[in-house]
Design goal:
By secondary structure, the protein is an alpha+beta fold. The chain contains eight helices and four strands. Belongs to the CpsC/CapA family.
Length: about 230
């Protein structure tokens, strides 16, 4: 009598029944909910208690156009100011400016200042905004004030540019701008849910048991003659 040898499994191709995945997810709904809550708590509480808050202070400078004695704005000076905006955004964070700011504010290095300072331009205007973010509200204001004042003085002394005015002075604010507790809590919750889902899928993939008559027939290649029903207690 010839014995039957079952076919070898094809390890290169894994087929997942979406219906089975859905049933498994519903079966492990309590675990998924728990991991989601834990992930959200870890993300939110970890951000709140382990990451120091940061404070911002900003200042805006405006390149004013020349005005004639008759009260008309010089168009040529407006065009010149528009071309000067990109230069201003670059020059305001140059080493010669920031090195003096570092001495005045007690910051360790110019490289550290560059990480804390960002410069933006309002579209279609000649207004440049300097934003400083540090872990000390007073330090943020001091850096913003020193940077703007030093830059304006340098522009007047070295380039004879005197049409730069401060339109929004740095302010002291104790309202933190970071870290984002809610956003990190949401990210943690999504990661927790994702890990739970991955665990369920891996359980299905790694489970090599034959669960019903159809799977047995497909695997063995012979008909199943009888099947024991599942009896509840």
């Amino acid at each position: 009598m010839n014995s039957y040898i079952p076919p070898e499994e094809d390890n290169d191709e894994i087929t997942i029944d979406l219906g089975e995945v859905w049933r498994a997810l519903k079966k492990h709904i309590a675990l998924l909910t728990l991991l989601t809550v834990i992930g959200g708590l870890v993300g939110g509480l970890g951000t709140k208690f382990l990451i120091k808050p940061t404070y911002a202070s900003s200042a805006s400078i405006f390149l004013t156009p020349m005005v004639s004695d008759a009260g008309y704005v010089d168009v040529n000076s407006m065009n010149s100011n528009e071309k000067l905006v990109n230069n201003v955004m670059t020059l305001i964070v140059q080493n010669n400016i920031l090195s003096q700011v570092a001495r005045e504010t007690g910051v360790g290095s110019v490289e550290e200042l560059k990480k804390e300072i960002s410069v933006t331009n309002t579209p279609n205007t000649t207004m440049v905004t300097l934003n400083v973010v540090t872990e000390d509200a007073k330090l943020s204001k001091a850096i913003a004030t020193s940077t703007v004042n030093t830059f304006i003085d340098q522009m007047k002394d070295t380039l004879n540019v005197s049409n730069i005015e401060i339109v929004d002075k740095p302010r002291l604010s104790y309202v933190p701008v970071g870290p984002h507790v809610k956003r990190n809590a949401l990210i943690g919750a999504v990661l927790g849910l994702g890990l739970g889902g991955l665990y369920v899928v891996l359980q299905i993939v790694m489970d090599k048991r034959l669960k019903n008559k159809e799977e047995a027939e497909n695997y063995l290649g012979i008909p199943v003659l009888c099947e024991l029903p599942v009896l509840d207690d």
